[in-house]
Design goal:
Layout lengths: L7 E4 L1 H20 L2 H26 L1 E6 L4 E2 L3 E10 L4 E11 L2 E2 L3 E7 L4 E9 L4 E13 L5 E6 L6 E4 L11 E4 L8 E13 L11 H7 L3 E8 L1 E7 L9 H18 L3 E5 L2 E6 L2 H12 L9 H8 L12 H15 L8 H17 L11 H19 L5 H17 L4 H17 L7 H22 L11 H24 L22 E2 L3 H5 L5 E6 L12 E10 L4 E3 L3 H4 L5 E3 L5 E7 L9 E2 L2 E3 L4 E3 L5 E3 L7 E7 L2 E3 L5 H6 L9 H7 L7 H13 L4 E2 L11 H9 L1 E2 L1 H14 L4 E8 L2 E3 L4 E5 L3 E9 L3 E5 L1 H5 L2 H4 L2 H6 L11 H21 L3 H10 L8 H25 L5 H13 L9 H11 L4 H16 L5 H13 L3
Length: about 950
């Protein structure tokens, strides 16, 4: 893009605030690892960059002419006219100028409008004239504003020609002295008048166009004025010396101005004698204009008074209408309401009602037909306080994700209700864009992403309406604003993609704030009913991708979570003792092949990594506890991907005696019948004790159900084994561990997940919350910890198939076939899994993987900077080409002249005519003078002559194509 000389590009106040919003959201995304937040932030940043190019493109094709008023007197408003022509796409144009008179520069004047291609825009700038003398506009700047009003690209325009401010006529001035005047016609007793034609003379400025002899002009090309005369009669002699009694210079000038007005009213000829100027006898408009211009320049020229100087220098504050356009305001409310939708499932119902009520009333209130009263500021403040109190009562804090975003939404709706000015209306769009980023705290799925992008387009369209509301006066569904904003976002997408891929992603947050979330998952303790409640939740807990390698069979898919070793008779809890947790684990791997897989965990706030038994390799910042549980030091608040390895192994052969003692402990006096059942087994070998307990459950008439009866607080194992005989996995695991401890075998309960649905569309396992499972581990000398799953004794289908099949067909060996709806759901989950891995889950580790595939060593290295530079060029070159192509004028003749300037590498100056351009180009290329003159002539005929056939345009284009420098 070629920038005209003197072009100045700067962000507007809205543009500066927009950039601040981008920086603020970027910091938030870095701290909270919001991958989609990065995407939206970089998309908005790309829009900010593209709009700068758009403003430069628009100002590049502006032609500006400043036209002074024909005449003016002291105390009147002078209407200077700035004529703007835009040869390219339509754009919002603003003009800034400063009037100067008597060495004093007045306050800046502004005018704005919409320049349409190949049309003239006339902007009127009213200028006060406090004193007589020359007055002109200096520092004229014409600026183009982009669609969203983020950038202000200005270029200097020529100062206006000076207009002479004539003096104010003295009120009740004395009558001037009269004299006899003689004429210049055939008779000596004649004078200038309008009775008979007397001849022609050279044109003088101020002569009426009606007196110009146009026949002489056509024949000779010289302006001549026709003269008439009349019989000699009375006239006026306006002499400077006659005004000596008036006092000051300004008083004498005012008296002479009054005498000129008297002569004009009486239609008398007059002459004028000034200290440095003499005006011969004459009459008519030209004579009056010449006299007043002479009086305007009498020395010394007056200086503005101190009050006038202060008024002139007072900052300009453009007045905005008292009532905002209702259509544009309702469109902003609609965009704001749509941007709130993703957060509604996270907020209480009363928040929905409050938001709907406030925004609905605000939309009705702007309707001039209804004339509803404004909401008092005190009522808005009270509503904000009550909403804060209600949210604190609902969530227990105002800093959590749900509470914080809900409070922000309420405050934004209340701000909409008090919107009164253009500044407030523009601020709504910025606040709405900020609110959109917070939705990614709740979800980063593809549906949320689409909704946020559409909401961003709506909010940007609303901002475009406030740049010039008259442009978008039509209904909200009209397509012009959508097309312009859509084009901006489309051009910004490559910029966003580049920054999304290459912008450094830190591995840890900058700071931490409490982010409260309602998460489901495994608990720190296990109680009756704990896992059966999870089994009713169909949401995804994690996904496991084996990368095309072997996938373990369903019976081996035990995903190990927390290990519960302490038992108080009611619940099982973890033994969080330093000597147990952080001692080196005892793992002896076998020669069986290892499983390598990527685990994508949904956020749970827990440190468990839920690896396959037995895990042998964990990612950085993680460990394997002595309970053989994979855990991380940095529990992720967002969906996170981990690389793990598991292998069949013997664990705990050299177990800590203190741990074995802990896993034999039973509270005294609890469950006497179960204790009595296991007592005879103590004399048997440990393996036989396990077999006896297993046989008891397998043959005891137990059933598997999601809705077992409530067990008592005391002796609940007895109540289950000898009473209800129906339960879920935690019932069987707890009862089996109790029997083993009663029989003298160290035992504990392990929580986690079992199974997982293989998705053929993506070749990975989906493990849901309903797959939560509990089993038992017993310690056998020489073997270590051995897994025993008592639930598999009651319902083998739970291990071999899935939960749904196990509940209806406990002994089934194959799962029920999937319905069409389930198959479609799996396809969508495959898409969502890829989305999670490569978009929503794109983090520092994946960025490093991508860079390594590109042969880049790391962020900040020389290859990284080179790759980033190449990416920037590849992204900006198409944008550069699109901007240049769209800057080509739409008018065919103007487009041909634009092609000529591109071919000569000599841009046209703003407002430069074709003839002037051809003359300037001929000075640089003398050999092309004849051709350039012919091009200019053909252009002028096409643009300003009668309708020409298409062949004329083809000839002009042919001349330009054949041109060689």
């Amino acid at each position: 893009m070629t920038r005209p000389a003197g072009v100045r590009l700067r962000p507007t106040r809205l543009g500066t605030a927009f950039f601040g919003l981008v920086l603020l959201t970027l910091i938030g995304c870095i701290n909270y690892s919001l991958s989609l937040g990065y995407g939206l932030t970089f998309l908005l940043g790309g829009v900010w960059i593209i709009t700068a190019a758009q403003a430069l493109r628009a100002v590049r094709l502006l032609g500006v002419t400043v036209l002074p008023p024909a005449q003016a007197a002291v105390g009147e408003k002078l209407a200077f006219t700035v004529q703007v022509q835009q040869l390219g796409p339509a754009g919002n144009v603003r003009v800034l100028a400063r009037p100067t008179q008597g060495g004093v520069a007045g306050k800046p004047l502004q005018g704005s409008g919409v320049a349409r291609p190949d049309e003239l825009l006339h902007l009127s700038l009213p200028v006060p004239a406090p004193v007589r003398g020359p007055l002109h506009l200096t520092g004229v700047q014409v600026a183009a504003v982009d669609t969203l009003g983020l950038w202000h690209a200005s270029l200097p325009a020529p100062d206006s020609e000076a207009v002479l401010v004539t003096p104010r006529a003295e009120a009740n001035a004395p009558t001037p002295r009269t004299l006899k005047v003689t004429g210049t016609g055939d008779a000596v007793q004649r004078t200038r008048g309008h009775d008979e034609f007397a001849g022609v003379r050279a044109y003088q400025p101020g002569d009426s166009p009606r007196l110009i002899s146009w026949k002489h002009v056509a024949r000779t090309g010289t302006l001549l004025t026709r003269e008439f005369d009349a019989p000699a009669g009375e006239g006026l002699n306006l002499d400077w010396n006659e005004t000596a009694g008036a006092g000051t210079v300004e008083s004498r000038v005012s008296r002479l101005a009054a005498w000129v007005a008297h002569a004009q009213q009486q239609k008398l000829p007059f002459s004028m004698n000034l200290p440095a100027f003499t005006l011969n006898t004459g009459q008519g408009e030209g004579q009056v204009r010449a006299a007043l211009n002479a009086l305007a320049q009498v020395r010394p020229l007056p200086q503005p008074s101190r009050d006038q100087e202060e008024e002139a220098r007072r900052p300009f504050a453009p007045r905005q209408p008292d009532v905002l356009p209702a259509g544009a305001l309702r469109f902003s409310f609609l965009a704001l309401a749509f941007s709130l939708l993703p957060g509604l499932p996270q907020w209480p119902a009363w928040v929905w009602a409050l938001l709907a009520g406030v925004l609905g009333y605000a939309a009705l209130q702007v309707d001039p037909r209804r004339r509803l009263p404004h909401v008092p500021p005190l009522a808005l403040l009270l509503s904000a306080l009550l909403a804060g109190a209600g949210l604190n009562a609902s969530f227990g804090t105002l800093l959590g994700q749900q509470a914080g975003t809900a409070l922000l939404a309420v405050l934004l709706a209340l701000k909409a209700a008090e919107t009164r000015t253009y500044r407030d209306a523009k601020l709504l769009s910025l606040l709405g864009l900020f609110l959109l980023i917070t939705h990614f705290f709740h979800s980063q799925g593809p549906v949320t992403a689409v909704q946020v992008v559409v909401a961003s387009a709506l909010l940007l369209s609303a901002a475009a309406r406030w740049v010039n509301p008259a442009t978008w006066a039509g209904p909200v569904w009209q397509g012009q604003a959508w097309r312009q904003v859509g084009r901006l976002m489309l051009l910004a997408t490559p910029v966003a993609a580049l920054l999304f891929s290459f912008f450094p992603r830190p591995d840890g947050p900058l700071w931490r704030l409490p982010l409260q979330q309602n998460r489901t998952g495994l608990s720190d303790e296990i109680n009756a009913g704990e896992y059966s409640n999870l089994a009713k939740d169909n949401s995804v807990a994690f996904r496991a991708d084996f990368g095309g390698g072997a996938v373990p069979p369903s019976a081996e898919r035990y995903w190990r979570g927390p290990v519960y070793e302490e038992y108080d008779g009611v619940k099982w809890t973890q033994a969080l003792r330093a000597s147990f947790t952080f001692a080196p684990p005892s793992i002896e791997t076998t020669r069986n092949a290892a499983y390598r897989y990527a685990l994508t965990l949904e956020p749970s706030g827990k440190p468990w990594l839920l690896a396959l038994e037995s895990v042998t390799q964990v990612p950085p910042n993680s460990l394997i506890t002595t309970g053989f549980q994979a855990a991380t030091f940095r529990p992720a608040a967002q969906r996170t991907r981990y690389e793990l390895q598991s292998q069949v192994a013997r664990t705990g052969r050299r177990e800590d005696p203190r741990r074995l003692e802990l896993n034999l402990f039973l509270p005294a006096g609890q469950n006497p019948r179960a204790t009595a059942l296991a007592a005879p087994w103590r004399s048997l070998p440990p393996a036989e004790r396990v077999r006896r307990a297993s046989e008891y459950l397998a043959r005891g008439g137990f059933t598997y159900t999601l809705d077992p009866p409530t067990l008592p607080q005391d002796n609940r194992i007895d109540a289950f084994l000898f009473g209800s005989r129906t339960g879920f996995c935690e019932h069987y695991a707890s009862a089996f561990a109790f029997l083993m401890r009663s029989a003298g075998v160290p035992a504990r309960v392990v929580g986690g997940y079992q199974g997982g649905e293989l998705n053929p569309a993506g070749d990975y396992l989906i493990v849901r919350q309903q797959d939560a499972h509990a089993w038992t581990e017993v310690w056998l000398a020489g073997q270590g910890w051995v897994r025993v799953d008592p639930t598999a004794l009651i319902a083998p289908a739970r291990v071999n198939t899935n939960l749904g099949t196990a509940l209806s067909q406990p002994n089934a060996t194959t799962a029920r076939p999937r319905s069409t709806w389930q198959q479609l759901a799996l396809r969508f989950d495959a898409f969502q899994n890829n989305w999670n891995n490569w978009v929503a889950g794109y983090d520092g580790e994946q960025q490093r993987t991508l860079l390594s595939r590109l042969g880049v060593s790391g962020v900040g290295s020389a290859p990284y900077m080179l790759a980033l530079l190449v990416g920037v060029l590849l992204v900006l070159l198409p944008i550069f080409a699109l901007v240049r192509r769209s800057a080509r004028p739409g008018d065919p003749a103007q487009a041909a002249l634009f092609d000529l300037s591109e071919k000569l590498k000599l841009p046209r100056q703003p407002g430069e005519t074709a003839s002037a351009y051809a003359q300037r180009a001929a000075q640089q290329y003398p050999a092309l003078e004849k051709t350039l003159r012919e091009i200019a002539e053909r252009f002028n005929l096409l643009r300003y002559g009668p309708a020409a056939p298409p062949e004329r345009l083809k000839e002009l284009r042919h001349l330009i194509r054949q041109l060689r420098r």
